[in-house]
Amino acid sequence: MAFPKPFYRWRPHPWHGLEIGPNAPQLVHAYIEITPFDTVKYEIDKETGYLAVDRPQRTSSLPPTLYGLVPRTYCGERTAQLMEGAMVGDCDPLDICVVSERPISRAEVILKARVVGGLPMLDGGEADDKIIAVLDKDPLYEGVNDISELPVAFVERLHHYFMTYKLVPGEEDHEITINGSYGREHAEKVIRAAADDYEHEFGG
To answer: Which of the listed residues 61, 75, 86, 199 has the most CB atoms within 10 Å of its CB?
Structure first.
């Protein structure tokens, strides 16, 4: 019997084995690593593709949205050139925050996300963009096409989370800066650059 196409005999690596999305950079796939219910920071293990415990969160702050990565992206030289003050990219897949009206309480899921903007996070001189998207076909957010159409307080909450999520009580502040936010048009440029960086680093 012939296997249907596409068919994965083995589990695909979430970073390298999945497609960037059905209509990138507007509509991308997001592999979710953390949910708003997680008090432990999970992160993909780059070698195996399984979800690993990175660290228990030291503070009470919880991620305001689903948080994960965009497959087949890489924050390298091209991505860094789009961020003022960045010397290099962080050499990781592009991070993405996905807004959903209905609670999604489990990680290691793949979803389609419609890009609306992003946060230009600079972490110790490295570009570490946080793309912001809404869950595709979410009835509450289906009319949102740009970050400017999201509630200001919600974007401020995301900003505050990323400014503080690496803080360790009793230690000096981490070198993180986020200068405002950017809209859909620039977010799409970041995704294109990260896809080009991926192809340069790993091949097509």
So the answer is: 75
